[in-house]
Amino acid sequence: MKTPDSRFYCPLIAVGDTELDETESNHAIRVCRAVAGDVLQLCDGKGHYADASVVKADSRACTVHIDSVEDAPMPRPLLNLAIGCLKDDALEEVVFHAAQTELDSITFLRTDYSQEPKNSDLHKTVRRSELKSLVSLKQSKKPWLTRIEGPVEFDRWLEAYNGDIILCDIDGDDSLPTISSRVATGSTKPVTILIGPEGGFSPREIELAKKFTAGKVELMKLGNTRLRARTAAIVALGKLL
């Protein structure tokens, strides 16, 4: 009996028999060559794991049996990322890398300098980003799926948001407390890193962010060089995780 070195996504993990969807079934049976009796590691992206034995090795509808469900040892992450909409496939690139970390959500913001059509719903980009986040969930073996949200106007997001904000700024603090140190002090407030599009946030948006009152606002310096937006997002995560 073998266990493929991969996690498989199952949105409803419960004791008993369950059927994987066609994508996960194909991955288990055709790619990992699992057979009846093999054990698959399942995750639901909501903080639950399970070892499941293959009952029916069908590449379109693989049936597995779960004896017990395990809860993740850590709570849902507090850290979030909100980034201005970018052109081409840059947003998907950000998601591909960022969603491998302990990140609760990534929100796409429509800002004054966003580099995407204002009348676009970014449906395809959002959907592809959701798929990349799901792949990252399984690859990184983390318990929580990074949610993809938006696109939403920056002003509307700021009005609805309740939590702390970290605005990346050349004049900011070079060393802010990490998320783990914040949790250690008892903090339970969500924290969102704000990354502007190429060209950054507009002066108007920066002032709005600095005047935010539903949480603490901190400025974080990412270094002495000017970074592309997609690079800034990863550097910011590295400084806080």
Describe the structure.
This protein has 2 domains: 65 residues, Hypothetical PUA domain-like, domain 1 (Ribosomal Protein L25, Chain P), CATH 2.40.240; 162 residues, SPOUT methyltransferase, trefoil knot domain (Alpha/beta knot). The chain has 7 helices and 12 strands. Strands 1, 2, 3, 4, 5 and 6 form a 6-stranded mixed sheet that branches. A 6-stranded parallel sheet has the order 9-8-7-11-10-12, sandwiched between helices. β8, α3 and β9 form a beta-alpha-beta unit. α2 packs parallel to α3 and α2 runs parallel beside α7. The mean pLDDT is 94.
Q: Concise description?
A:
The chain is of the alpha/beta class and 241 residues long. It is built from seven helices and twelve strands.
